[in-house]
Amino acid sequence: MSHWFYDFLAALGYSHPLHPVLVHVPAGMSIGALGFSILAMLTKQAAFRATAYHVAVFALAFTLLAIPVGIFDWQRFYGGAWFFEIQIKAVLAALYLLLIASAAVIGRRCLESRALPVLYFASVVTVAGLGFFGGQLVYHGFTPEAPVQFKIGRQVFDSHCSGCHRRGENIIEPNMPLRNAPQLHDFAEFLAFIRNPRMPDGSPGVMPQFGSDRISNPNARELFDYLNFSFVASNRPVSAQ
Fold this sequence. Notes:
- The protein has two domains: 2-139, no CATH class; 148-235, Cytochrome c-like domain (Cytochrome Bc1 Complex, Chain D, domain 2, Orthogonal Bundle).
- The chain is mostly helical.
- The longest helix is centred in the first third of the chain and has 33 residues, at 46-78.
- Helix 2 (19-43) packs antiparallel against helix 3 (46-78), helix 4 (84-109) packs antiparallel against helix 5 and helix 6 (151-160) packs across helix 8 (217-231).
- The protein is elongated and about 70 Å long.
- Helix content is 63%, strand content 0%.
C-alpha cells in the first residue's frame, strides 16, 4: 500500500493507522470461537462446535488482511523502526497466524478434534499479548506531559513525531536523538529542517518532509516551543525535570 492511500485518507479527515481498526475483528472472533467451543463442550450441541469453527475461519480471513496492513502502518507511522514492541508483536502475530490457521485446517477435517479448543484458547492468549504490546506501543509515555500553554505543540508531536521520537529518542538513528538536537536552538533552522530534513552530510534521511499542508507554520512554532520545553535541558525548569 503506497503512501498516496494514506494521504488520501488524511485528506478525508482520517489520519490514524488502519491496523487497529482491522485487528479488532480477529481478536473478537478468537474470543467468540473459544466461547462457542466451551458452549459445545457444556451442552454437547454440535451446532456450537460448528459455529466456533466458522468464527475461527472468519478470524483467519481478517488476520490475512490485518497483518499486511499492520506492516504498512509500521512503515508509514514508525518509519520501519525495528524496536522492542514491534519485535514482540511480529513474533506473536506469526504465532497467532499459525494457531488460527491450524484450527481452520483441523476443523475442516474433524470438528470433534480435541485440539480445537486448545488452539482457540492459545489464540485468545496470543491476541491478549498482541493487544498488550500494541497498547505499550501507542500509550506508554511516548509524549511527555507539559503545561497547558504547550497543548497544541504536544498534540502535533503526538500525531506526527512520537512514533520515531518517543521520549525524545530517535529509534531509527539512535545516535541522533531529538533531545537537545541542534535544530531546536533556532526556530527558522527548525522550520527549514522539518520542511526538508537532511542528515549531517547533507543527504536525505528517512524522516519524511512535513510540508505546510501537514504542519502549518503556526503549528510548527507550537511544536518547536513544546520540544524546547520537553527535550532541551537548558529550557526545562528544575521542578519539571
